[in-house]
Specification:
There is one protein chain. By secondary structure, the chain is mainly beta. It has one domain. Helices cover 12% and strands 48% of the residues. It has one helix at residues 2-17; strands spanning 21-23, 29-33, 39-42, 48-60, 66-76, 82-93, 99-104, 114-116, 123-126. Strands 1, 2, 3, 4, 5, 6, 7, 8 and 9 form a nine-stranded parallel β-sheet that branches. It is globular.
């Protein structure tokens, strides 16, 4: 049984290991320099994260996160999060009760942001 628990814990942490920075503490306010840390995992709750530059990948697994900035890919799995994005190429809202706004794509060759919204009660809006 201990082996199964260890394996499950290891598999759960695999996505976090791929990140350049992981925010796991609660009630954090942090600015991330995407030039140095392009892949960010946010697993803590009630955090405010500001991105400078354009990140490659942002993964939000925590709840009540406020995110601002730009990233090629943003994946929101947690609940009650707010993402205000200047630019994003791919946006997934798999969690529930999330709000995401975006203005444009990161890659100017793309005509529009690819949006996937499999979660419930999410609002995804393109703004000007």
């Amino acid at each position: 049984m201990k082996l199964i628990s260890f394996l499950l814990a290891s598999v759960t942490l695999l996505p976090l290991a791929a990140a350049d920075i992981s925010i796991v503490d609660n009630d954090e306010t942090i600015t991330v320099d995407c030039a140095k840390d392009p892949n960010v995992n946010i697993a803590g709750n009630t955090a405010t994260v500001t991105l400078t530059g354009t990140c490659s990948k942002i993964m939000i697994a925590g709840n009540h996160i406020t995110l601002a900035g730009s990233a090629a890919t943003v994946w929101i799995a947690g609940n009650h999060n707010t993402a205000t994005l200047d630019a994003v190429d791919s946006l997934v809202t798999a969690g529930n009760h999330n709000t995401a706004t975006y203005k444009k794509t990161v890659n100017p060759k793309l005509r529009k942001t690819k949006v996937s919204n499999p979660g419930n009660h999410n609002t995804v809006t393109r703004t000007k």
